[in-house]
Design brief:
The structure holds 2 protein chains of 2 kinds. Helix content of chain A is 28%, strand content 43%. By secondary structure, chain A is α+β, with helices and mostly antiparallel strands. Chain A has a 4-stranded antiparallel sheet with strand order 2-3-1-4, covered by helices on one side. Chain A has 4 helices and 8 strands. By secondary structure, chain B is α+β, with helices and mostly antiparallel strands. Chain B has one domain: Peptide Deformylase, CATH 3.90.45.10. The longest helix of chain B is centred in the first third of the chain and has 17 residues. Chain B is globular and about 45 Å long. In chain B, 42% of the residues are buried. Classes of the chains: A alpha+beta, B alpha+beta. At the A-B interface, strand 5, strand 6, strand 7 and strand 8 of A face strand 5 and strand 8 of B.
Chain lengths: 178, 168
Amino acid sequence: MRTFAVSAIGADRPGIVAAVTGALLPHGINIEDSRMAILRGHFAMMLVVAVPEDADPQAVRSDLAQVGSSLGLDATAFNEVGSAATAKPASHVVTVYGADHPGIVHAVCVALAERGCNITDLLTRLLGEGETGFAYVVILEVALPDSLAPETLREDLQAVAREQEVEVAVQPLERVAL
Amino acid sequence: MSVRHVLQYPHPSLKRIARPVAAGEGALVERVARDLIDTMHSSPGCVGLAATQLDELVRVVVVDVRGHRRATTSNGELVLVNPRVVRFSGAELGREGCLSLPDLTAKVTRATEVVVEAAGRFGEPLIVESTGFEARCVQHEIDHLDGILFLDRVASLTNDVFRRVRSG
């Protein structure tokens, strides 16, 4: 079995997941991990799938493109991924919030990249208009390199927070064990 | 009935530290407590409110978790003046929201048991032992008095469901 990543993006409507999975199944493809998001009517989905050796990737790609076309999607993709070198799991949660303006996400992510941190999960929201304007919230789960002390990252991000006029917090990631 | 407007972030008062209530401010406490209780009860699902959220920068909070599906224990309707957590234990991750940050929830770690010293609505000394969901609410509201929002304590993104354990 080979591992491929499937992506689909476009305007949301009922039936996308059914149609995409319907294009994959006749090729004997098994869906492993996936994630989907809808933001303000825009749909995006990623699936990691197991593909039998005798499947024809070009045929799959073509079937997906047909689905995309009939649903009016912006794009579909089907590409092999390397054997699962899973990213180092996140160790910290970074939360940033303040009055909204352009540049917040970029400044935070540059600071993280400069220290070799990897973002494993990200959420941002523009919150409804308060009497003093829009609030912006960024929550990231981050893997720190072994050599980086959390306090050093916290200081870097506090400098960014001062420049961007936002609040920042760095917390250890809580793991829930069942 | 005095239902008041709840400040929405990024209103700057939400990041300010409230001042202690002094002796002899009984009339202030009564007015603020009444407004907090009325406003809390007028908002469905609201189980606590801090004076800061009404733009009253004095150390008064109200909590009332009675009837809430997550509440296992309750001390009834609580009015806490100058509250201080004097003992705490345990830790639990749980979802929180806030009327001052509508449409957003996140997972926050809180102590599962707290002991709070405070003055009551009529100036009487109080020692409140609180557990579980009510303890979470008490901690959340006391944070407001110090300009701390639940976003300052987020410990996990809400959609963290399955996590592969890294071996070795």
